[in-house]
Amino acid sequence: MHKVLQSLQLSLLNVGYAHLDKHWNYDNVVSPFTRMYYISKGSAKVYHNDQTFDLKPGYMYLIPSFTYSRYKCDEYHEQYYISFFEEIKNGLSIFNLKSFVYELKAKDTDIAYFKRLLEINPNRALVNDDPEVYDNRPTLQTFKKKNEKLSSAFYLETNGLLRILLSKFIKDHNRLVIKNTTRNNLSQVLSHISENLDKELTINELASYCHLSTDYFSRIFKQKFGMRPNKYIQSKRVERAQLLLLTTDNSLKQIAEKVGLENLSYFSRVFKSFTGKTPGNFRKEELNV
């Protein structure tokens, strides 16, 4: 597991301090990056992963990438916020491999980390707190340039602080508890899926990869990840398509091929089943923000 974690890459998008009121009220927020908050004053609510979190002063909160969420503030609250991309080798997400808590009592050192990230990354605040504004392609395309402009010292410090803060939310036990052989480790299957999203993937192939029967493989996969393998594969294809639509100028046909859904009509149906929008409408709405 640690060898996998050694490939973890974290890239800062935004960091800032916000004064928010009842206008902070957004539904159907699904972003291709991870969010982290520290609440300093007031109260609000966030809904995700089938849970309701009462945001309260002195606590930190985590929302994984590509997670449906809803925000609501009835009166007023203030928060430090961080958004960042996370990726393990071959496009895998750490949220596939480890279990996380999403609410933690912050220590003085944690608060100092938020403040330090803001200090060494000025001018990275969100201009508008509406997700439909900041989840757009132009914003996402500029983050790499801003990170490259950091000094070597600040770049390394930023990455280290992000790692420390993210590590706070990881549960002590591994999410995957399976037989101790490489081929029976489902994390290897997730990596295999991520590497081959542009190809045909069958349950028989994945089960064989683990030296398991198809039925048993499907059962333990659902037990570990909450969905059948086919649905998981489709969800990963749609997630990658969303990111490509936001961050590249690739045509819909090129993106469909890159995510293993070469038939444009089928690609559109699958994409809409997960997002409620066709790929073309998704890109158009984001670009016209």
Automatic annotation (TrEMBL):
Asked if Transcription is a keyword of the record, the answer is yes
By its UniProt entry, which PROSITE patterns does this protein fall under? HTH_ARAC_FAMILY_1, HTH_ARAC_FAMILY_2
The record's listing under Pfam families reads: HTH_18
Record-annotated HTH araC/xylS-type domain positions: 187-285
InterPro entries named among the record's database cross-references: Homeodomain-like_sf, HTH-like, HTH_AraC, HTH_AraC-typ_CS, Tscrpt_reg_AraC-type_HTH
Keywords associated with the record? DNA-binding, Transcription, Transcription regulation
Annotated GO molecular function terms are:
DNA-binding transcription factor activity; sequence-specific DNA binding
The lineage's top-level taxon is Bacteria
Kindly provide the name given to this protein in its UniProt entry.
Helix-turn-helix domain-containing protein
State whether keyword Cytoplasm applies. no
